[in-house]
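Let us work through a complete example step by step.
Step 1: write down the sequence.
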Amino acid sequence: MNTPRRVLAGLALGAIAVGVLPTAASAGINRGDVVVTDKGALRGTTADGTRTFEGVPYAAAPVGDLRFRSPQPNAAWKGVRDANTPGGACAQPASMPVGVPTANEDCLYLNVTAPTRARDLPVIVWIHPADMMVGAGDIYGAERLAGDAVVVTINYRLGAMGFLTDPSLDSGSVNGSGGLGLEDQQAALRWVAGNIDAFGGDSGNVTLMGESGGGYGVCDHLASPASAGLFDRAIVESAPCGVGGGSRTRAEAIADSEAVVKAALAHQSCEGVTDAAACLRTVDAQTIVDAYGAWGSPRPVSGTPLLPLPVEEALRTGRFNRVPVLVGVNHDEANGMIGGAELRPDATPIPREGYRAAVEQYFVGEDPEPIMARYPLSDYGNSAGLALSTALTDRDWSLATYDTAQTLSKWTRTYMFELARQETPWFAGYPEPSFPVWSQHMAEIPYLLDMQVIPGVDFFEPLSAEQARLAERMIATWTRFAESGNPGWDRVREGDANVRSLKPGPWTETEFVRDHELAFWRSMA
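Step 2: predict the structure and record it as tokens.
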């Protein structure tokens, strides 16, 4: 016999009052700011029609003997746990401006943002960007995106703490070493499956969404059998994983990890100890972070139960979780990278006479003459930086994203977008480079999420009125896709990607192939 929902609510509130652990009957009840999960009751905060729950544990702290092991269940708690402060970010170096330098390891937390009267809404799980090296889920405020959806942002182990690969650590996971960051994300998705209904979400309608490193994470879930059934749609922004970049071989990962293992064995806390695994679990986290370095592109290892095939092979052969995919790229991805290089101390814009040398530097092994002829300085206001950025965007981002969409479309319903060339919010407080950055890498984020690396300080400049209107439309489109698996335009088909150009005014199909010189770059391959 089914127990009436109001009776379950009474049972749950009674359990909270006396400090009893939640039962199967009480878990999932929602009343006001208090929600009962499978581990205990949570009290969030309500403001402006939105409820937020921050610092929600989804796995045990991976510290001590749990370091470099698969995520384990966290303990239940009695009474009501306050969920109004984000959990600590995962250990990471000081490098990118989007990072939170720390040696903290107690970091497997997530955040839930939902409308106050949410019920059976689509769920969007955001995997944060920054190359799986730095960042945290709570940096990305989801109040706007959560207008008609329940949004979950997550932390996961980063850099060496999440992807260190060494034979001595293989017993820490049935998958071997090298993929714990991805396993963390899967643990968060299992938490969503078991608890999100209590927050007004529909656990049967979960969309994974990520940008850059987070987008590659979404691709990893597409390719991982262990993620099957944990999500129903995928949004991949600026992560052309169909041509590589989503995973690495075991040999590559071991080579990438050697400096960390060597540093651990040489550390004074491991003097006289020959067991590498014991050293790696004993040495302080900062030593591991420092030994790995400030810059890297860690990825999960393929050829394991977690990721049997390299991501690009899984997509090419159709051996992946076939859910609807929305994949996209920004029109001017590389502009921020090249423009940002001008802003480093003692740096200057690339001079006209330095164009050839810059092309040779960034297009190693290529004949610079045809590239310079296709992208002449005269077409770019004599700006070598702008010409170089355009060429890099076309080769490294536009072509690769187009091919990724075509690959996916052979096996599953796929849609493609491009954030059109336009003025977009620049990084607040930073000087601007010598040429326009337009729709650079990350430019779509302020239209969807409110980013604050430092609490209370906006990372991007405020949206203009026109940009705010575009943001509302983009959020509605992302939500529509999360709800139905269709963003509102034609799907990608062989030879016709139907790339929708996102900009103020009508959204039309862009001349993507011609605009980004794809035929030229294919001829250069």
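Step 3: interpret the result. The first helix runs from residue 5 to 18.
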